[in-house]
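User: Let's play a game. I give you a shape written as tokens, and you guess the letters that built it. Ready? Here's round one.
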């Protein structure tokens, strides 16, 4: 009881919080593709994500992609005219849904994309058509269906729930998009490289286990009772250990009562070159290098990584988010959703200094933008562009030096003929 009234608590599952109630059960037919009805997708990676090397690669890419900044902007003549500070821009830049921050949201989407080569994001629209939330979907399997002439995706979740979602309400990202009309290819091509690496790791594991196996036998030349046998064994073991320091001396003592027979084992292990080859093969599959993985890259190496791996993802996400979230009218007025990153943040200090020396005097960047490169906060008035006065029209150099006006200017200062 609370204030004389009964407090009623209603529990709703995450499924019911996300999806519309009328999208659970509809009667739909299988969607026929150009090459038949092969329209089922199962996000299965043959446990590739459980391999530490694969997970390290995916984690590396997802972490760098999660630093991208989504923005709702308007372009005119191919140039950014303004950033639209509306509810959609806030949702994209801060919290796409009630469960995930923007960093976690992008990290999860990219992880799914590289683990399964497909990532699906459900767009939850309000009754007025505005975006209420964006939800990355992790499901058991997916079937393509047709309902009233429209393409639907039937998601079957591992918890037993089923939902039908129009394809137009899904942001679909894919990799290795070739043979299938809708889905990206699987990571089957990675299997051979993974098998090689796993066999190498198993060989190393066996070598470590064999190090603790029996390496020798004490053969006594007379019959001893069990107690005497253990005492003789302990005496031999203790002869290896110095009584003063407790360290292994490497020498042991035996008398004529016993003989020591060494057991040899030919243990074959993989060398570092073979391990590196197997690991590099997986790195290449994801477009990575050892320096990118270990964060020991140079400025040029990071730029190459950004342009070959991160930037294509940013372009793909921008195009798909723009098409699925914004209306046709908004797109026709130049509205776009972009994912941008300040690549100069990863430049060396010397490069940043040269950039500021070249761009600040021409007003290409502001003082606050220059301060941001070095990790400093903005200052008041630092967002105004400032231009150096050390630049002049080449045809008017002499006039500028003596402070005279140009011939077609009005006022004093020109050469008068007397």
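Assistant: Ready! My guess for every position:
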């Amino acid at each position: 009881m609370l204030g004389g009234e009964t407090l009623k608590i209603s529990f709703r599952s995450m499924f019911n919080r996300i999806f519309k109630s009328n999208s659970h059960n509809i009667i739909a037919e299988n969607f026929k593709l150009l090459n038949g009805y092969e329209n089922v997708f199962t996000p299965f990676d043959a446990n590739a994500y459980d391999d530490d090397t694969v997970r390290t690669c995916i984690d590396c890419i997802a972490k760098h992609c999660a630093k991208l900044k989504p923005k709702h902007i308007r372009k005119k003549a191919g140039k950014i005219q303004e950033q639209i500070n509306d509810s959609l821009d806030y949702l994209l830049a801060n919290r796409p849904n009630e469960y995930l921050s923007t960093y976690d949201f992008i990290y999860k989407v990219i992880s799914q994309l590289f683990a399964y080569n497909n990532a699906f994001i459900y767009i939850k629209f309000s009754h007025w058509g505005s975006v209420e939330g964006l939800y990355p979907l992790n499901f058991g399997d997916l079937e393509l269906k047709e309902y009233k002439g429209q393409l639907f995706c039937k998601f079957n979740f591992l918890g037993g729930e089923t939902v039908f979602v129009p394809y137009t309400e899904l942001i679909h990202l894919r990799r290795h998009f070739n043979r299938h009309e809708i889905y990206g290819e699987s990571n089957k091509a990675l299997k051979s490289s993974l098998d090689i690496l796993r066999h190498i790791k198993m060989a190393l594991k066996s070598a470590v286990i064999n190090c603790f196996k029996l390496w020798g036998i004490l053969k006594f030349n007379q019959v001893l009772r069990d107690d005497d046998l253990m005492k003789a064994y302990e005496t031999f073991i203790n002869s290896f250990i110095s009584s003063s320091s407790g360290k292994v001396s490497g020498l042991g003592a035996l008398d004529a009562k016993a003989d020591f027979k060494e057991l040899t084992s030919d243990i074959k292990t993989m060398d570092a070159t073979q391990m590196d080859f197997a690991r590099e093969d997986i790195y290449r599959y994801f477009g990575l290098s050892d320096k990118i993985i270990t964060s020991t890259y140079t400025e040029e190496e990071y730029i190459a990584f950004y342009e070959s791996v991160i930037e294509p993802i940013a372009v793909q996400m921008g195009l798909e988010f723009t098409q699925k979230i914004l209306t046709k009218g908004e797109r026709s007025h130049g509205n776009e959703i972009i994912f941008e990153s300040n690549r100069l943040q990863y430049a060396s200090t010397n490069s940043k200094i040269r950039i500021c020396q070249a761009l600040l005097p021409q007003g290409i960047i502001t003082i606050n933008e220059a301060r941001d490169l070095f990790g400093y906060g903005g200052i008041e008035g630092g967002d105004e562009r400032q231009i150096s006065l050390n630049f002049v029209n080449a045809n008017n150099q002499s006039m500028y030096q003596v402070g005279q006006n140009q011939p077609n200017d009005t006022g004093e200062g020109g050469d008068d003929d007397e």
